[in-house]
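Task 17 of the worksheet. Students: predict the tertiary structure of the chain below and write it out as structure tokens. Keep your answer in the requested format; marks are given for formatting as well as content.
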Amino acid sequence: MKKVLFILIVTCLLISFLSAADKVKVRQEVQTNDRDPLASNHSYGTPPTDDLFDLQFNWPVAVATGEAGLETDGNYIYTTEWNGAGGFFRYNMDGTYVGTFTIPGAQFVRDLAYDGQYFYGAAANNSLREMDFTPGQETLISTITAPVACRAIAYDPVNDGFWANNWSTTITLFDRNGTTLDSFPCGVFQSYYGFAWEDVLPDGPYLWGYSQDGASLNQLVQFDIATGLETGVNFDIGSI
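Model answer:
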């Protein structure tokens, strides 16, 4: 009887300890989130397909202090640190962490875009930084005054411009002089943190947005650039 009672007491203590540890972990994760205060959960969305959203890779972040934006030049993968020292992190194409670097004048960048030569990003403001990420010569090239605050951003090679917005503001295309070329409002999904442009899928090109919306607040959304409307193709990233 004493042995059974002892086991029960130890089990209760372990459950209590694990519960407390989970709460601490949750508090720590919340501190590094850059979440739209207006983001909300919704149950709508197209069910994931078998092909388009197959998982290709899944690599852990190396620093995990607020790595937000992500972009690649085909040689390395880069992420941004929005809430720490405001630096950038370099990974090999197989996900191996290489190291960190900073660029004076380009701190707290959120999303990243790449035009084939330079990287672009802003600290959720109108000052879009043009940056050289070449290893050993990382530097700020110039600053573009954007017509909108840039949190999410993507380079559009057809128009030689940038699609950008801040959370749920109007999604705007502007050129290198900061002149507005096109715009359309967010649709059903809101709270965007990242954009990507692609012309691989049929009937494109498309703008893809990473939205802090949907069932798990992690929704990938496809826009038809020609119409400025959501296509109905979207995916709950939190489901994987």
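Marker's comment: The first strand starts at residue 67 and ends at 72. The mean pLDDT is 86.
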